[in-house]
Design a protein that fits this description.
Layout lengths: L3 H29 L5 H18 L6 H19 L3 E5 L5 H10 L4 E5 L2 H10 L4 E8 L3 E2 L1 H7 L5 E9 L3 E4 L8 E4 L1 H6 L1 H7 L4 E4 L3 H10 L3 E5 L1 H7 L2 E4 L9 E8 L9 E8 L6 H11 L6 E6 L7 E8 L5 H9 L6 E9 L2 E2 L1
Parallel strand pairs: 1-2, 1-3, 5-16, 7-8, 7-9
Antiparallel strand pairs: 3-4, 3-11, 5-11, 6-9, 6-10, 12-14, 12-15, 13-14
Helix pairs in contact: 1-3, 2-3
The chain binds prephenic acid.
The site of prephenic acid (PRE) has 15 residues, from helix 4, strand 3, helix 7 and helix 9.
Length: about 350
């Protein structure tokens, strides 16, 4: 028979354990200055949740274990050393959902109005961390993020993969929609559906999908491409769910910060470099990576403002900069590059 007292006792025990954990974290932070830090706590939560599947295989699935532990880690850290995390707002943008999935609800999440403002907030130290979209599986790189990564004043300290299912949201039915608002990347991820179902309707670019939902909530006839969470928050009807052209639509977000995470055992490293404008210079860099057995997971070139034919390059590969092959490659690269920066070594991201 249902015994509420027993459940309350179990819940009390869980809270007592969390309280013990929080006091331990507070004591560590007092003794050791900077350690432990929030991103390392998140990496540790991942590890513990994954390993617990072997020791406690039954019951709660791995994704739920990770999520519960992330919330506990962030709540403990927040109680000891409050920190804010900047994201492209307003609330219920995909960046917000990614930040919630990674940092949990215990962290104070701080909406800002552009990707550049996330970099500024972290660079100035107003926020300890920030979340920015970096690449989408349908639409490719996020130009604003790449542009700011070339400034090089913040590190990448983590990675988040978020499945993106876009929805057409409005106060009006499909037949009465005259404009569709959203961030250019979101409009592009749905361009096939929009061309088929709303041909000729004006597309209006906004700073984020949640900003589009705010606009749609103010004016009948405007629709937004945004998340289901945004539909609930801004009181919009879901005119059509899942309008992304590619069902496997995933956006990769970078966590920005100032620390350099310790190796977690499953890491990635991101490098930024420039080369001289002469034959074979990019091939020489690739040769160094090949010679050290580094298998690229991402490569991008980005034009250098005001310098025709000159580019920044960004590459990513598995491994941490403290691992011998990565250390050796980084040591060999200055000879082949004009400018080289390690943007970060960080735990490989999971879907949140
Ligand atoms: O506008 C948002 O909601 C965002 O968080 C930005 C962003 C992006 O620029 O890629 C993030 C995920 C989706 O790919 C669409 C939009």
């Amino acid at each position: 028979m249902h015994d509420p007292t027993h459940l309350s006792q179990l819940d009390q025990e869980i809270l007592d354990l969390i309280d013990r954990r929080q006091r331990w974290v507070a004591a560590q932070l007092r003794q050791q200055g900077d350690s432990p830090n929030l991103t390392e706590g998140m990496a540790e939560a991942e590890r513990v949740a994954t390993e617990s599947m072997a020791t406690i295989p039954a019951g709660i699935p791995a994704a739920a274990r990770r999520s519960i532990l992330r919330h506990i880690v962030s709540a403990c850290y927040q109680a000891s050393r409050p920190e804010r995390v900047a994201f492209l707002g307003p609330i219920d943008s995909y960046s917000h959902l990614a930040a919630l999935g990674y940092f949990g609800e215990g962290t104070e999440l701080s909406p800002v109005s552009s990707i550049g403002a996330v970099f500024d907030a972290v660079g100035r130290g107003d926020c300890g961390h920030g979340i920015v979209p970096i690449e989408n599986s349908t639409d490719g790189r996020i130009v604003d993020t790449l542009g700011r990564l070339t400034h090089g004043n913040v590190n990448i300290t983590g990675e988040i993969l978020l499945a993106i299912h876009h929805n057409l949201l409005s106060l009006s039915p499909l037949a009465e929609i005259t404009q569709v608002h959203s961030k250019p990347q979101a409009l592009s991820q749905c361009r096939g559906w929009l061309a088929d179902h709303l041909p000729g309707v004006q597309l209006v670019e906004t700073a984020s999908t949640a900003a589009a939902a705010e606009a749609a909530a103010q004016t009948p006839g405007i629709a937004a491409v945004a998340s289901l969470a945004a539909a609930r928050r801004y009181g919009l009807d879901v005119v059509q769910p899942s309008i992304e052209d590619n069902r496997d639509n995933i956006t990769r977000f970078a966590v920005l910060g100032s620390e350099q995470p310790e190796p977690s055992g499953d890491d990635k490293t991101t490098l930024l470099f420039e080369v001289q404008h002469r034959p074979g210079t990019v091939a020489d860099v690739m040769g160094v990576l090949r010679d050290h057995g580094l298998n690229l997971t991402w490569i991008e070139s980005f034009p250098k403002p005001g310098r025709p034919n000159e580019y920044f390059f960004i590459v990513e590969f598995p491994g941490h900069q403290s691992e011998p092959a990565v250390t050796a490659a980084i040591a060999a690269l200055p000879e082949q590059t004009q400018h080289l920066a390690v943007l970060g070594s960080y735990p490989r991201g999971r879907k949140v």
